[in-house]
User: Fold this.
Amino acid sequence: MKYKKIVRIAIILTGTLVFMWGVPALVQLATSSPQKYPFVYYSSVIEEFCFRETEGKNAIKRDASGRLYNDAQFDSIMPMLYYRQLSVNGKMPDSIQGRAVTMPEIRQKSFTYRYNCEELSTPSMDLYIMYESMPKRVNIESPGDVFRMKDNIEFVDVESNRVNKEKSLLFATELDKRRYTFPAQWLQGLMTNRKPYDEGYFSLDATGQLFHIKMVNDRPFIRNTHVSDSMDVVYFSMLPVSDKRFYGFLYDSEGYIYILESPTYQPRKVDIPPVNLHEDRIMIMANMFFWTVYVNTPEGRYYYALDNDSLQRVDQTFIAAQPGLWDKTAAWLFPVYLTFEDRDSKYLNPEFHFTSWIAFIMNILAALLFFIFARKKRKCLYLQSGYVLLTGIAGLLSVLIIPDNK
Assistant:
């Protein structure tokens, strides 16, 4: 009998954990909706943030001062965004802010960049492709091998699955000559041939030094950027911009963002507050005059306008996140619930979430109803009512479904 009680208690505890995950997951599926923010872009004409948001079937276009615009007017105040439409209509200005503008220059100076917090924690295969950075043909061609780089660098032929010892030794010798220290902490690059040019990879070695690694005319090109002499680099994101102004974006341990200028490897700080690499999402829409930077946080979305040349902040605004139906429901029904999927990666990561003390009102109500209507022995009734008081709906379902020992 004693062992039966222990088994039943274990089953109830397991059932409670299952309901702590299953019931909130079903409720969230029924009530959750994505956070909605307006489209925002900084105008190079009126030098204000401009907003486009949808209300029902209508699109409202306005600026930060509250002035409303029709489609044509909205296009005209944002020529860096709608230059194709303005050009077709014959309304594209030939100069902005006293500076002559041409279509090729607009395209060359414009780029879009995105950072997702999943990049830091998503598992990687640790197999990389080394493209030729000075190809003989216009298009970048994929090589017949891949390489791995952890305790050493090895190139592996994809057809025979054998190590190319000659090529591996060539790169290993150059890495050793440049005092690269294994094991590598990470490599960051773009493993696609659908890019305007190739700049290889940036890698953080065991000592925290940031190296540039690429292949030029079938020979290794290895450089210590010495960026780590002045900052604690934690992440790098490659971005092949058309004007080759910089290699990509650097992130330091404090959350500040820098561009790594080409070809000097000089870091230049982006004038926005530090970000949380494990929670925030970033998007940059840049043109020849200004950068519009989005930073999505759990609290809401921050918008920054930066001067293109100095990267100094010229304006900023913030839109707070609005609690959705799921947030309101969870605050009343589930003081604690369990999830298994990490929202910032592809890993399974069990985690308890605490919502609000208000939800304990539901626990009290569930415990009272159980105490009044459950047909249990007095001692068992007190114990199980207390358990429902602590665990709420999950505990109530568990003790109701799992039968008593006979």
Notes: The two ends are 9 Å apart (CA to CA). The longest helix spans residues 2-31.
